[in-house]
Design a protein that fits this description.
The complex is a heterodimer of chains A (652) and B (520). Chain A has 26 helices and two strands. Chain A is mainly α and 652 residues long. Chain A starts with 8 loop residues before the first helix and ends with a helix. Chain B has four helices and 33 strands. The termini of chain B are close together. Chain B is 12% helix and 34% strand. In chain B, a hairpin with a 4-residue loop joins β5 and β6. Classes of the chains: A mainly alpha (652), B mainly beta (520). At the A-B interface, α12, α13 and α25 of A face β15 of B. Chain A: GO terms for molecular function: protein-macromolecule adaptor activity.
Chain lengths: 652, 520
């Protein structure tokens, strides 16, 4: 697991230990949760005292201790997967087919398989815990002729398969709801209070999700349950007991106690996993205070101005920006370090580095918004972006154009033109750290997962991703296409746009699959807008940090270091304001996302663009209210001056 | 120490307070005053008759319809929908002829148990048994809220515009620079308890309603007089209603809301419409919120004899138990270092001092004084006036401190039954630097027969302080207090008060200090 990222001091020294602490807490919380689960699963109203004594005797038995050790192993594994798969920038699928591509990705497949196996293990522990008829997989039974045989215990099997199913659906839902996305809260709280506040929500959403999973599982088992049953019987050389009802029948499944135990076990499984995830999120997003400057040169790489400019890992950049936003707001002594001059030479290195990095972040977002707007404006709709939105650009768009070719050959060129123009214009613009194209073959199953995570931050929806049309990008396409579409890819209509597909392909072309894919490719509303602002938490902090620093510089900046940067800060913010305003005039951009009531997935990323817009306005107002009419002396273009006047008159 | 005895006596009937100039309150008769009021664009009058009120009551319209027999299932479903779990149990218990005996008996027992438990809970926190209208009236900062024509008022923190919430659940926005007065109406905008403009923003107005929190975005450049309800964001959280108080952070990033029914105080990130509940048991709810002007602390009072002061960096709180009653009102000094508050059932103003934590130190608990000091005693005092004796003083409804920290307005409840105990506003002169001092200034009175209901200081009045008072008649008046602020530097010559020199009169009262920190 040693990879490029591990070499970063921050991941080694901070993130890793935070993850370890969160896993340790999750393991420590396991005994009480298990005890509660034992009591709930074994309790009977008719014999309460007997049930309690049975629970106590079970809790001290060897099998309980063994299953507890297994559960600890599962928790550690889940915690480890959290650490491996987490991201601070969500991956947003812009179309349904992109989502499908994510779900069928090899990396996701490994994840799902892991969760399936862990689900089976937890379900086995649950079977031991619940006891009774669930305990063993084989029962002695008497056949019709009276000879004793080993028969399959279907209750045990149904519980194990339920564990696998719930684990699998948990991992699928994790992709759909971006459960690996770690969001930062606007309200800072201590870890214990954060944890306590979210606990009831975790319990509630584990129980609901378990309910839905069990419902789906029962339907699946009703139709397909005979397959695993026959397979197990064959491999383990067991017989089916003909004297009891088979469980994949209506009568068999209408067993309330069975349903209750399935639901309780699924809730237990999901609760322990969600709890591990919650602890991980709470620990990882804790504020880390970076020194602004250090007197020792060997510590210089850990200081805020250096750390801010680091491109990787993203978590380091995010925590550094969060620290900047907080220090600019709350601590005058650290602000004074930012405004201070270097000892020999008298240069404001700290302020220069910080303001430059923040401004380049904001300028990058402005560029992105302008580029997106231009694409949409030339195209009428965000079509080229949607096709360029998935894990590829070139190959997928060639498929699109291929299929469209056949339905309407002429407009294809029109469709393609803006995309290519767009791609060129993007290549021309300076690449910011966030958007630098990555060339390693990330999506092959053999690449290190950690390395892949590094690129996961990169927005796969955005046009600036994958502008490099190297051959390996082809492999990123999830293999969902029929051979005919694949041949179309290889037929490279992109390389030679003039080559119209050969007539012989034509009859096979408008296949159902192709049409289906075409339909699925339509953009999910507002997804591209969400994707544009996927990493906007960084911009929000940059805006807050800059504006608070500028505000306090009015009274605290002794050497006037901020004044020199004021024109560029103002014009950068006003330029961004203009781009954001234009973006929100697009259809879908200002439509509010549907609130998902209870899910472990974090939906913060869906509203980041609104948060950015509000923060941007507040930041500009913060500067204008502090400086007031003094701003008239600042040099800026006439257009920006007009906009600034609006702010000075409180008319924005 | 009775502070009110040192005040100049109240004005004779027919005189109204106009302004303060040269250290003394000037008054005028009603007729000449009227002319002045009509000419001023911001003085408004909302006669009660002009408002269209709802005749609809909160209770359901069930009684108006004939009873007709439905099946038990239908009735149970309806009861579940209307009355929740208790309604269902009630329905089952009442229709004992149709259901099996064991079911009706067991549901009856459960219902009795639930009622006993809720009455027990209610006896711990009596306010939980009130209806939401009563609760709003009880905990609002407005005197006699349910009868008020103007239910809430808010100045914009940066410009000369304000929002007025009226008895008919509409909100009007007045701006002297624009001809349009937008009227805000929304389906969910019922029983407005408080309105507040978002700082560092020109458009956003938060409204505390009976069931939710609305954040309106009113474009100041728009010519529309009826912004659509699409301009409003709805923020709600289960169990968090009715909302009696809201407060924006001075940096404009967060909004906190309080409900007496909910032990959690909600901290909203309005742009992303997500709220974080800050739960603390004890107190039984949160009634009043006030964010300190420097943004470092939030006062949160509860319906019990307890209030909390939250520190806003890591959101931890200090508990402050009171001896007698709940904290009724509070206000912060401009630098956020001093909190004045009043307690229900007492006639004094207390002060708490918060010293700044050493900057940059990660421990963020606010270190303050160990006990609150009494700074003013407003117990009842009799003044002899030509119209007879007037008794002034008693319990305090609300406090307001002007943004320069030089005037403190105190709204005294009075007694609505007794004619000689009117509700009145007492104004103190205050000084926070270098030591805290309190001096008498005078009483603010309106037209005869009207009482002040609500008051607020203008957030950035150039020539001193401007107190806006909403009267029971539906009139809104603005009272300037002209003075040179000691704390605020004056640029150029515009700082000097532009009022005609008033006639000389000795102002002995003003010299006597009521409270200084050296005394205590």
């Amino acid at each position: 697991m040693l990879s490029a990222e591990q070499s970063c001091w921050f991941v080694r020294k901070v993130i890793f230990w935070r993850a370890v602490a969160s896993i340790a807490w999750a393991v420590l919380l396991l005994p009480p949760i298990t005890a509660v689960f034992v009591i709930i699963s074994r309790f009977s109203l008719l014999h309460p005292i007997q049930a309690v004594s049975e629970c106590l005797s079970f809790l001290t038995s060897a099998s309980a201790i063994f299953s507890f050790i297994l559960l600890c192993g599962v928790i550690i594994m889940v915690g480890f997967l959290n650490l491996e798969y987490y991201t601070v920038i969500p991956t947003i699928a812009c179309s349904k087919i992109a989502l499908l591509g994510q779900l069928l990705h090899p990396r996701q497949f490994v994840n799902s398989l892991g969760h399936c196996i862990m689900g089976i293990i937890v379900a086995w522990c649950c079977a031991i815990t619940v006891g009774g008829r669930y305990e063993t997989i084989a029962d002695p039974c008497a056949q019709g002729d009276g000879s004793p045989q080993m028969c399959l215990n279907e209750y045990h099997l149904i519980l194990l398969l339920a564990g696998a199913f719930v684990g699998f659906s948990h991992s699928l839902l994790g992709v759909i709801y971006n459960m690996n996305y770690v969001s930062f809260h606007t309200v800072q709280q201590y870890k214990y209070l954060r944890f306590k506040g979210s606990l009831s929500l975790v319990l509630k959403c584990s129980a609901t999700q378990a309910l839905y999973s069990v419902r789906n599982y029962i339907v699946v088992y009703f139709f397909l349950g005979y397959i695993p049953k026959a397979w197990i019987c064959k491999t383990l050389n067991l017989h089916l007991n003909s004297s009891v009802h088979p469980l994949d029948s209506i009568a068999g499944l209408l067993d309330l106690s069975l349903l209750y135990h399935l639901w309780i076990s699924a809730s237990f499984l999901l609760f322990t996993w969600h709890l591990t995830l919650l602890l991980f999120r709470v620990f990882v997003t804790e504020v880390y205070s970076f020194p602004v400057q250090s007197s020792f040169t060997e510590d210089a790489h850990q200081c805020l101005p250096t750390v801010l400019t680091d491109k990787q890992p993203m978590i380091l950049k995010f925590l550094a920006l969060l620290d900047l936003a907080l220090l600019s707001q709350h601590s005058p002594s650290r602000r004074s370090e930012v405004f201070s001059l270097s000892q020999p030479g008298g240069h404001p290195h700290n302020w220069n580095a910080i303001s430059k990095e923040c401004l380049s972040l904001l300028a990058d977002l402005t560029q992105r918004l302008i580029a997106y707007h231009d694409t949409v404006a030339t195209n009428g709709r965000a079509k080229s972006l949607s096709t360029g939105s998935e894990r590829k650009t070139s190959s997928e768009s060639s498929v699109t154009s291929g299929t469209e070719d056949l339905m309407s050959p002429r407009p294809t060129l029109l469709m393609k033109t803006p995309a290519s123009v767009f791609a060129r214009s993007i290549v021309g613009c300076p690449q910011s750290p966030l958007t630098a194209p990555f060339t390693p073959d990330l999506d092959s199953p053999f690449a290190s997962p950690a390395l892949r995570r590094l690129t996961a931050p990169m927005d796969q929806c955005s046009p600036w991703f994958g502008t490099v049309q190297s051959p390996h990008i082809m492999r990123r396409v999830p293999k969902l296409w029929s051979t005919s579409t694949d041949s179309q890819v290889n037929g490279s209509p992109l390389a030679s746009p003039a080559s119209v597909p050969s007539p012989k392909q034509e009859p096979s072309k408008p296949s159902l699959l192709a049409q289906f894919l075409q339909n699925r490719k339509e953009q999910l509303p507002e997804a591209s807008s969400q994707a544009l602002f996927a990493d906007s938490q960084a911009h929000i902090w940059a805006l807050e940090g800059l504006s608070y620093l500028v505000q306090s510089s009015f009274s605290e900046d002794q050497f006037g270091v901020v004044q020199t940067a004021l024109p560029s800060i103002l014009s950068c913010m006003l330029g961004l304001q203009e781009a954001v305003d234009r973006h929100f005039k697009l259809p879908h951009a200002s439509s509010k996302p549907v609130r998902s009531a209870s899910s472990m997935g974090d939906s913060t990323h869906k509203t980041l663009r609104f948060a950015l817009r509000a923060t941007l306005k507040t930041s500009i107002y913060r500067i204008t209210t502090t400086f007031g009419n003094h701003l008239n002396a600042v040099k800026m273009s006439a257009e920006h001056r007009k906009r600034l006047q609006q702010f000075l008159e409180y008319k924005e | 120490m009775c502070s009110l005895a040192l005040f100049p006596p109240p004005l004779p009937s027919g005189q109204t307070t106009l302004c303060e100039s040269n250290n003394e309150l000037l008054s005028g008769t009603t007729t000449e005053d009227r002319l002045k009021l009509e000419s001023s664009p911001l003085s408004l009058f909302f006669p009660r008759e002009s408002l269209k009120l709802h005749c609809r009551t909160e209770s359901s319209s069930k009684a108006a319809f004939l009873d007709h027999s439905e099946t038990l299932w239908m009735r149970s479903a309806a009861a579940w929908r209307d009355g929740g779990f208790t309604g269902l149990l009630d329905e089952i218990t009442n229709s004992n002829t149709e259901v099996p005996k064991w079911l009706s008996v067991s549901s009856g027992c459960t219902l009795a148990l639930l009622r006993w438990f809720s009455s027990f809970h209610g006896s711990l926190f009596p306010h939980l048994t009130m209806s939401s209208e009563d609760m709003l009236a009880e905990f609002s900062q407005v005197l006699n809220w349910s009868d008020c024509v103007v239910r809430a008022f808010a100045w914009h923190p940066h410009t000369d515009k304000f929002a007025v919430a009226l008895l008919d659940d509409s909100i009007k926005i007045y701006n002297p620079k624009s001809a349009t007065t937008p009227t805000l109406k929304h389906r969910l905008q019922r029983s407005v308890a408080a309105v507040q403009w978002k700082p560092l923003c020109a458009t956003a107005l938060a409204v505390a309603c009976q069931n939710c929190l609305l954040v309106w975005h009113v474009d100041p450049c728009s010519l529309s007089t009826r912004p659509s309800s699409g301009c409003a964001q709805v923020l709600s959280h289960p169990g968090h209603s009715p909302i009696t108080s809201i407060a924006w952070s001075p940096s404009g990033s967060l909004l906190v809301s309080a409900s007496p029914m909910d032990t959690a105080m909600m901290v909203w990130d309005v742009a992303s419409e997500s709220g974080v509940p800050l739960q603390r048991v004890g107190g039984g709810g949160v009634t009043f919120l006030s964010w300190s002007p420097d943004g470092s602390h939030v006062l949160a009072s509860t319906p019990s004899a307890l209030f909390r002061v939250w520190e806003t960096r890591m959101w931890t709180c200090e508990r402050w138990p009171c001896v007698k009653g709940r904290c009724q009102s509070g206000c912060w000094s401009p630098d956020g270092s001093r909190l004045l508050f009043t307690v229900q059932g007492e006639t004094v103003i207390y002060a708490l001092t918060f010293t700044d934590t050493p900057a940059g130190v990660p421990t963020c608990t606010s270190k303050g004084s160990q006990a609150a000091a009494v700074v003013a005693d407003l117990s009842e005092t009799t003044f002899n006036t030509p119209d007879g004796d007037i008794i002034v003083g008693g319990e305090i409804q609300s406090l307001a401190w002007d943004p320069t920290g030089e005037r403190l307005a105190v709204l005294l409840k009075g007694d609505p039954q007794a004619a000689d105990r009117p509700a009145i506003i007492a104004v103190f002169k205050t000084r926070t630097n270098p030591i805290f001092e309190l001096l008498p200034c005078g009483f603010v009175q309106g037209e005869p027969g009207t009482e002040p209901r609500l008051m607020q200081f203008h957030p950035n009045f150039q020539h001193g302080a401007l107190l806006t008072v909403c009267w029971s008649s539906g009139r809104i008046t603005h009272m300037p207090f002209y003075f040179l602020s000691a704390g605020v530097p004056h640029f150029g010559l515009s700082g000097s008060p532009s009022l005609p020199r008033p006639q000389e009169r000795p102002a002995d009262f003003a010299k006597q200090s009521l409270f200084t920190e050296l005394m205590s």
